[in-house]
C-alpha cells in the first residue's frame, strides 16, 4: 500500500514538467548570474605563488658583497632572484619567464617591467625599493662614519663580515594568522543556491495535495483503510525522492558547466543536503496536512525561504549588517550555508553539529505535528 | 431469502438548524439494483456519504454488511465500491496506473493486482487505451475509467452516483450494460441518477427522496400505483413529478 502511494506520487511529481525543470534549471541560472555579479567581492584576496626576477650586478660593485643576504630574504618570501645578463634578462622578461629584470651598480639600479599592471612585478618593486632605501641609508651612515669616525666604521664593517645567518634576525617579526579561506564566487553561490532551492521542493508535495483535493481523490482514498501515517509517508517519501533527484541534477549541471567546487568532503556535504531535503519535505508535507490552500502554503514557503535566504544566507556582512545577529541566527539557512561553505573550503565546520540538530528537530517535529493532526481529524 | 446488505434505520443528518436527511429507513438486499431518485438538494448525496462513512449521521443507525457504522466499517470497506459523481482520477497518470493506485490502496499487490487491473480495464473497454494519459481521454472514457477504479477490488456493494452525467449515448449505454453485468455476477448496486429512463430500466426497486425524506419506495409498478390507477403506463418521470412537484429546486447539499 505504501509502495503504491510512493510510486504513483513520485510519478505525478516527476511528470509535472514545469515544476521539475524549475527545480533543476533555476538554481543553475541563479548561480551563473550571482557568481558573475559578485565575483569581485568574493575575490578580494589574491594568492601568489613563487615568481622569478632576473638581475645583474655591475662588475666590481660593492653591492655584490651584500646581495646574497638580499637574495635569501626575497627567496624566503617567494621571490627567486636569478643572475642573467641584460640581453637574456630582457628576453626572459618578454617571454614571461621572469616578472622583472634588475640591473644594479654602486650608485644606481634599474628595474625593467612589462607595460601594464602586474601584481608580482609591483610587489617585487615595492619590496626592492624598501630594501634599497635601507641599504642607501646604511651606506650613507657608513660613509659618514668613515669620514668622521674611522674606528667605528672599521668595527661595523668587521662585524658585518662576521655575520652569519643566525645573527641576521629581522627587526620586524611576522605573525601569520590562520583565517578561514574565502571561497570563489561560483563556489559560494554554487553551494548556497542549492541549499536555497531545496526549500522550494515542497511545491511538489503541495501540488500533489492540491491535485488530490481538486480531483476528489482524497475522498476516494478515505473509502479505503489507508492509515493517516501511510498517507503522510506516501507523500513525504515521494516528495523527498523527487527533490533529491531534482537537486542531484542541479548539482551535476552546475558542477559540470560552472565548475562549482564542493571541496574534499563532498560525501559529508551530500549527507547534510540529504538531511535538508528530508527536513524540508517533512515540513512541507506537514503544511499540506494543516493548511488546505495550496496558494497559502506556496506563498509561505517561497516568502519564508526568500527572507531567510537573504538574512541568513547571502553575503550579508555588507548587505544586511543592519539586521541583528539574533534575528539572523533564526534562519536555518544561516547554519546550512556556513556549514557547507566551510566544508568546501576548510574540510570541517564549527556549524555542523548545530545544523544537524536543527534539521533533525525540524523533521521530527513536522512529522509529529502532521500525524497528530491526521489522527485527531480522523477521530473527529 | 436474500440477506440484507445495507440497512438504514431512521438516519438523520442536520447541519446547524438545517435538516438535510430526515429519518430515512430502508433496506437493500443482496443482489438487487436499488435506485435513489430525487431532485437537487433532496439528500441523496448526503445519504450516500453517510453510508460510506464519509460523514457521521446526526441520528439513526446504519448497518453495512452487518457492521454498525458508528463502530467503524474498516472491516467491510473492501466490500464497498463508490463511483463518485465527479471524475476522481489522476489526470497525469495513465489509465492502468490509476487503477493500480486505487486497487493498491485496498492491499491488492503482485500478480493479483495485475490481474485486477487487466480485468477492470477489460470490463470498461479501455484495454487498448491502458497506456494513455487520462488528460487525453474523452469524457466517456474518463467516466469508464472512474468506474474501473471503483470495481478493481471486486466490491460486493457498488454505489454509482450519477455515473452517466455529460457523456454520449453510446458510452451511457455501455455503462448501463456493464452495471447489469456486475449485478448478474453477484454485486449489489445502489444507483442514483437524474435520468429517469436509466433508473426505470435498470433498477429493481426505487426510493424517491424529497426534502430529506423518502416519499416513496418500491418497484416501478408500486410507485405508479401510488399516483395512478392500476395498469397505468405512466412513466417514472411522470410519477416523480407528481410526487415531488414541478417547482425548481435550488437547495444546496453536501456533495461527495
Characterize the structure shown:
The complex is a heterodimer of chains A (380) and B (256). Chain A has 17 helices and 4 strands. With 380 residues, chain A is mostly helical. Chain A folds into 2 domains: 235 residues, no CATH class; 117 residues, D-Maltodextrin-Binding Protein, domain 2. Chain A has a 4-stranded mixed sheet with strand order 2-1-3-4, with helices on both faces. In chain A, helix 9 packs parallel to helix 12 and helix 13 crosses helix 16. Chain A is elongated, with a radius of gyration of 33 Å. Chain B has a domain of 174 residues: Rossmann fold, CATH 3.40.50.
Mean pLDDT of chain A: 83
Q: What's the total count of β strands of chain B?
A: 10
Terminal CA distance of chain B reads 33 Å
Whole-number mean pLDDT of chain B: 88
Placed side by side, the strands forming the largest sheet of chain B appear as: 6-7-8-3-9-10
Oligomer: heterodimer
Helix count of chain B equals: 8
From the spread of the alpha carbons, the general shape of chain A counts as elongated
Flag low-confidence runs of chain A: none
The level of helicity of chain B is 25-40%
Strand content of chain A: 5-15%
**What's the number of domains of chain A?**
2
Largest sheet of chain B: 6 strands, mixed
Distance between the termini of chain A: 24 Å
Query: Taking strands numbered 1, 2, ... along the chain, how are they ordered across the largest sheet of chain A?
Result: 2-1-3-4
Amino acid at each position: 500500500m505504501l509502495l503504491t502511494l510512493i510510486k504513483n506520487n513520485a510519478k505525478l511529481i516527476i511528470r509535472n514538467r514545469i515544476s521539475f525543470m524549475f527545480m533543476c534549471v533555476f538554481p543553475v541560472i541563479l548561480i551563473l548570474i550571482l557568481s558573475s555579479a559578485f565575483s569581485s567581492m568574493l575575490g578580494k584576496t589574491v594568492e601568489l605563488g613563487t615568481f622569478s626576477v632576473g638581475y645583474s650586478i655591475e662588475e666590481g660593485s660593492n653591492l655584490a658583497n651584500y646581495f646574497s643576504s638580499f637574495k635569501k630574504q626575497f627567496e624566503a618570501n617567494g621571490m627567486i632572484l636569478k643572475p642573467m645578463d641584460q640581453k637574456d634578462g630582457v628576453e626572459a622578461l618578454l617571454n614571461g619567464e621572469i616578472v622583472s629584470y634588475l640591473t644594479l651598480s654602486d650608485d644606481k639600479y634599474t628595474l625593467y617591467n612589462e607595460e601594464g599592471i602586474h601584481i608580482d612585478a609591483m610587489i617585487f618593486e615595492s619590496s626592492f625599493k624598501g630594501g634599497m632605501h635601507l641599504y642607501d641609508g646604511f651606506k650613507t651612515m657608513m660613509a659618514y662614519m668613515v669620514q668622521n669616525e674611522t674606528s667605528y666604521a672599521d668595527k661595523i664593517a668587521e662585524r658585518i663580515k662576521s655575520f652569519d645567518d643566525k645573527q641576521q634576525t629581522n627587526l620586524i617579526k611576522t605573525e601569520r594568522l590562520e583565517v578561514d579561506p574565502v571561497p570563489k564566487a561560483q563556489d559560494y553561490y554554487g553551494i548556497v543556491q542549492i541549499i536555497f532551492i531545496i526549500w522550494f521542493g515542497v511545491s511538489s508535495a503541495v501540488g500533489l495535495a492540491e491535485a488530490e483535493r481538486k480531483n476528489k481523490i482524497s475522498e476516494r482514498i478515505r473509502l479505503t483503510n489507508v492509515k493517516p501515517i501511510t498517507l503522510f509517508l506516501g507523500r513525504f517519501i515521494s516528495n523527498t525522492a523527487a527533490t533529491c533527484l531534482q537537486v542531484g541534477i542541479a548539482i551535476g549541471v552546475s558542477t559540470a558547466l560552472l565548475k562549482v567546487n564542493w571541496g574534499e568532503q563532498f560525501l559529508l556535504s551530500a549527507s547534510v543536503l540529504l538531511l535538508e531535503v528530508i527536513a524540508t519535505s517533512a515540513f512541507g508535507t506537514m503544511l499540506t496536512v494543516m493548511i488546505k490552500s495550496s496558494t497559502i502554503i506556496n506563498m509561505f514557503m517561497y516568502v519564508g525561504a526568500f527572507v531567510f535566504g537573504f538574512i541568513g544566507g547571502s553575503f550579508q556582512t555588507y548587505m544586511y549588517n543592519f539586521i541583528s545577529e539574533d534575528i539572523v541566527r533564526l534562519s536555518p539557512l544561516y547554519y546550512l550555508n556556513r556549514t557547507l561553505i566551510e566544508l568546501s573550503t576548510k574540510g570541517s565546520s564549527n556549524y555542523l553539529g548545530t545544523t544537524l540538530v536543527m534539521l533533525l528537530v525540524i523533521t521530527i517535529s513536522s512529522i509529529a505535528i502532521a500525524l497528530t493532526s491526521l489522527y485527531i481529524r480522523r477521530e473527529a | 431469502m436474500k440477506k440484507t446488505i445495507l440497512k438504514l434505520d431512521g438516519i438523520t443528518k442536520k447541519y446547524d438548524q438545517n435538516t438535510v436527511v430526515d429519518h430515512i429507513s430502508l433496506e437493500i438486499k443482496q443482489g438487487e439494483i436499488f435506485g435513489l431518485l430525487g431532485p437537487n438538494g433532496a439528500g441523496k448525496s448526503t445519504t450516500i456519504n453517510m453510508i460510506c462513512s464519509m460523514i457521521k449521521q446526526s441520528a439513526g443507525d446504519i448497518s453495512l454488511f452487518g457492521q454498525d457504522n458508528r463502530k467503524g466499517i474498516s472491516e467491510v470497506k473492501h466490500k464497498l465500491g463508490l463511483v463518485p459523481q465527479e471524475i476522481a482520477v489522476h489526470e497525469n497518470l495513465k489509465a492502468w496506473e490509476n487503477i493500480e493506485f486505487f486497487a493498491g490502496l485496498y492491499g491488492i499487490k503482485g500478480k493479483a493486482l495485475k490481474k485486477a487491473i487487466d480485468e477492470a480495464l477489460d470490463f470498461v473497454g479501455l484495454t487498448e487505451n491502458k497506456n494513455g494519459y487520462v488528460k487525453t481521454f474523452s469524457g466517456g472514457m474518463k467516466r469508464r475509467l472512474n468506474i474501473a477504479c471503483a470495481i478493481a477490488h471486486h466490491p460486493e456493494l457498488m454505489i454509482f452516483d450519477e455515473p452517466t452525467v455529460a457523456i454520449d449515448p453510446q458510452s451511457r449505454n455501455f455503462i448501463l450494460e456493464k452495471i447489469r453485468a456486475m449485478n448478474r455476477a453477484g454485486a449489489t448496486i445502489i444507483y442514483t441518477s437524474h435520468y429517469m429512463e436509466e433508473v426505470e430500466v435498470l433498477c429493481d426497486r426505487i426510493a424517491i427522496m424529497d426534502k430529506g425524506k423518502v416519499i416513496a419506495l418500491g418497484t416501478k409498478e408500486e410507485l405508479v400505483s401510488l399516483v395512478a390507477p392500476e395498469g397505468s403506463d405512466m412513466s417514472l418521470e411522470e410519477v416523480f413529478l407528481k410526487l415531488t412537484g414541478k417547482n425548481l429546486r435550488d437547495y444546496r447539499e453536501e456533495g461527495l
